[in-house]
């Protein structure tokens, strides 16, 4: 028991919220691998509350003193934490046949500890600097909810990175849905704090928002994330700006906002937020950078028609497997190869919800194929030796049709080819018009294929 409460008192005397939150961690620290077991065995159900009251309120061995109301609030928190630790130890030792029941008890007990913390902030005057305790409570409530719903028996070790928690196959997430409601309560008590900013719980907002985003993404309730963004916008003048929060909070927030815009097909806004997340991300956070690039690469493909380079993808073997085959086919104008690469990565593309966006890359591949036809057409015969050469701008539809049939390995009639060409012109991937009666495409002399230098 002593290490927990010694840490509590030391953190309280120093006003260190992060050290205080570590005394509520459900994971043994590396330097004390049996801390949870010793803490739980240090008392029993009959004596726990009295023992904790003595440690927090009446221990005369230290000069540390708390107001009675605030101290009793912490007694309730640590009593609930002690019970949760007991359930965690039981779950770790439970047989696989009872895994679901064990982790359900863990979740319920951890939820009670979280509720004790919430009551502390609403009724007992817990100070704003202690808000990191809510980070720990919210983080592990989400983890334990997932364990209770899936009963995977996976490790409950610390998860410091943000994760892209799409789970399209999830059908039953009772505990995770409940966890989302509890996280919303935490979000509300932070957002509605009226204290001056230097001592406000609003400094905990973005950590909780990021937990909500992760939870909503896993529940496939991404539309609920927009409610959070609307709430932030409504309180914008009464809260600190994002750039004064820790960079880890900024990166995670910008990443999820970027993905939300991506799923709404607002690729320019998505690119903006994802680029900011990429620039702020720590150079050694390879996994996080990989997740950002998963959406930033398709954004760039549609907004600027640029492809990822091998140098960019070299630290990310998984992204090389996903994007390099597509990139090579787009660059060459290989329509059949593009289709094959899209099918090969379909499962992962669908899981990440980038399939439909990447599918639009076929238009860029087609543009590059048509551009090759245009370049192969050569130059018009110069009327004057001093006149600079001008490329042939009147291309028979049949020439484009032959190239498309070869590139896609499918025979296409002239109407289908004209439809594809009209679509290219409409999307501003090609500048010109189709003269149907003459069976030719008349291309612009001033940039027939915008953005390509031709």
Automatic annotation (TrEMBL):
Signal peptide: none annotated. PROSITE patterns: PCI (PS50250). Pfam families: PCI. One of its GO terms (molecular function) is double-stranded DNA binding. Residues 251-448 form the PCI domain. InterPro entries: Csn12-like, PCI_dom, WH-like_DNA-bd_sf. PANTHER family: PCI DOMAIN-CONTAINING PROTEIN 2, UNCHARACTERIZED PROTEASOME COMPONENT REGION PCI-CONTAINING. Belongs to the CSN12 family. This is Protein CSN12 homolog. It comes from Hyaloscypha bicolor E.
């Amino acid at each position: 028991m002593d290490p927990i409460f010694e840490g509590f008192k030391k953190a309280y005397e120093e006003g260190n919220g992060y050290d205080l939150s570590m005394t509520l961690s459900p994971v043994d620290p590396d330097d004390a691998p049996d801390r949870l077991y010793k803490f739980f065995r240090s008392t029993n159900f009959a004596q726990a509350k009295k023992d904790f009251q003595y440690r927090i309120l009446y221990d005369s061995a230290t000069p540390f003193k708390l107001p009675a109301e605030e101290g009793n609030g912490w007694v309730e928190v640590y009593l609930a934490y002690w019970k949760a630790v007991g359930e965690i130890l039981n779950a770790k030792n439970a047989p696989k046949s009872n895994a679901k029941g064990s982790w359900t008890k863990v979740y319920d007990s951890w939820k009670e500890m979280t509720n004790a913390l919430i009551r502390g902030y609403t009724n007992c005057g817990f100070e704003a600097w202690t808000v990191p305790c809510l980070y720990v409570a919210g983080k592990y409530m989400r983890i334990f909810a997932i364990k209770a719903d899936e009963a995977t028996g996976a490790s409950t070790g610390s998860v410091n990175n943000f994760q892209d928690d799409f789970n399209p196959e999830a059908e039953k997430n009772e505990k995770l849905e409940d966890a989302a409601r509890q996280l919303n309560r935490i979000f509300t008590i932070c957002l509605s704090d009226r204290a001056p900013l230097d001592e406000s719980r609003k400094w905990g907002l973005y950590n909780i928002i990021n937990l909500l985003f992760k939870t909503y993404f896993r529940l496939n309730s991404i539309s609920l994330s927009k409610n959070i963004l609307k709430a932030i916008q409504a309180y914008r003048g009464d809260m600190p700006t994002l750039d004064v929060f820790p960079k880890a909070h900024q990166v995670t927030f910008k990443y999820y906002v970027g993905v939300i815009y991506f799923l709404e097909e607002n690729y320019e806004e998505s690119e903006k937020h994802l680029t900011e997340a990429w620039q702020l991300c720590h150079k050694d956070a390879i996994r996080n950078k990989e997740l950002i690039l998963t959406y930033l690469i398709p954004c760039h493909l549609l907004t600027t028609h640029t492809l990822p380079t091998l140098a960019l993808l070299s630290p990310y073997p998984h992204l090389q497997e996903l994007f390099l085959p597509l990139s090579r086919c787009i660059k060459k104008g290989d329509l059949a190869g593009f289709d094959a690469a899209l099918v090969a990565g379909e499962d992962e593309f669908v899981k990440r919800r980038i399939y439909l966006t990447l599918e639009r890359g076929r238009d860029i591949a087609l543009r590059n194929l048509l551009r090759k036809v245009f370049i192969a057409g050569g130059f018009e015969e110069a009327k004057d030796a001093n006149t600079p050469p001008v490329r042939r701008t009147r291309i028979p539809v049949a020439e484009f049709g032959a190239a498309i049939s070869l590139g896609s390995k499918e025979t296409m009639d002239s109407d289908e080819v004209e439809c594809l060409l009209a679509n290219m012109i409409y999307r501003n991937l090609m500048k010109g018009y189709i003269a149907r009666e003459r069976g030719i495409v008349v291309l612009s002399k001033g940039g027939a294929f915008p953005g390509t230098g031709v």
